């Protein structure tokens, strides 16, 4: 069992069209701070990234943002974080987020969030890590992804036990219980 000290949160640099997404990001940030965990995230101050980081900081928690040089302007790097690490590219960002984290949580987001989610799942499937992964399906935002995972196993492109590599939760209140269950 790995001691839980930090969690990576993958999420959007945009807010999305449902206020429940931002609410979940803030609630998750509050829970991370309350548990004295360090947030590892993409380093932006905008969108859901900014919401979760600000909530952790407001709760007295520590935040490490990891952002590539070229995204400083697009995602507007958060200057108020505990630690900001600037890297050369997206690959280095994802690897640094992986190295610094004891668990992974996926909030709503776009292509980048989906890319991060799929890579960390693939690494777990390949046995490169055994850390908990929780996909937070707020108001059905990841319902198509859940269907895709089912299709991959039904069509035997993924083993039926691949579904056990992660947990899909519908509310923030169940995220850390799921992490604890997977971390045993």
Describe what this molecule looks like in 3D.
The protein is of the alpha/beta class and 184 residues long. It has a single domain (6-182), classed as Rossmann fold (3-Layer(aba) Sandwich). Helices cover 42% and strands 17% of the residues. The protein contains seven helices and seven strands. It has helices at residues 19-34, 47-58, 71-74, 90-99, 111-125, 143-154, 175-182; strands spanning 6-10, 38-41, 63-68, 83-87, 103-106, 133-136, 167-169. A seven-stranded parallel β-sheet has the order 4-3-2-1-5-6-7, with helices on both faces. Helix 1 packs parallel to helix 2 (47-58). The protein is globular.
Strand content: 15-25%
Shape: globular
Largest sheet, if any?
A: 7 strands, parallel
How helical, in percent, are the residues? Answer: 40-55%
Secondary structure tally, helices = 7
What fold name stands as the CATH topology? Rossmann fold
Task: Provide the residue-averaged pLDDT.
Answer: 95
* Alpha-carbon Rg, integer: 15 Å
Which helices and strands, and how do they pair?
Layout: E1 6-10, H1 19-34, E2 38-41, H2 47-58, E3 63-68, H3 71-74, E4 83-87, H4 90-99, E5 103-106, H5 111-125, E6 133-136, H6 143-154, E7 167-169, H7 175-182
Parallel strand pairs: 1-2, 1-5, 2-3, 3-4, 5-6, 6-7
Key attributes of the depicted protein:
Rossmann fold, 7 strands, 184 residues, seven-stranded parallel β-sheet, alpha/beta
């Amino acid at each position: 069992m790995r001691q839980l000290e930090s969690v990576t949160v993958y999420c959007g640099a945009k807010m999305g069209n449902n206020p429940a997404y931002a609410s979940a990001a803030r609630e998750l940030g509050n829970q991370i701070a309350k548990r004295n965990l360090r947030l590892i995230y993409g380093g932006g101050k905008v969108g859901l990234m900014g919401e979760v980081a600000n909530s952790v900081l407001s709760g007295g928690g520590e935040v490490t943002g990891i952002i590539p040089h070229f995204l400083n302007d697009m995602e507007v790097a958060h200057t108020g974080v505990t630690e900001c690490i600037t890297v050369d590219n997206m690959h280095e960002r994802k690897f640094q987020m992986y190295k610094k984290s004891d668990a992974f949580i996926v909030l709503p987001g776009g292509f980048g969030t989906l890319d991060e989610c799929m890579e960390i799942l693939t690494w777990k499937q390949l046995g490169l890590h055994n850390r908990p992964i929780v996909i937070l399906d707020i108001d059905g935002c990841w319902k198509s992804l859940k269907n895709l995972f089912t299709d991959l196993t039904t069509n035997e492109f993924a083993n039926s036990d691949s579904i056990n590599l992660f947990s899909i939760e519908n509310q923030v209140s169940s995220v850390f219980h799921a992490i604890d269950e997977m971390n045993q």
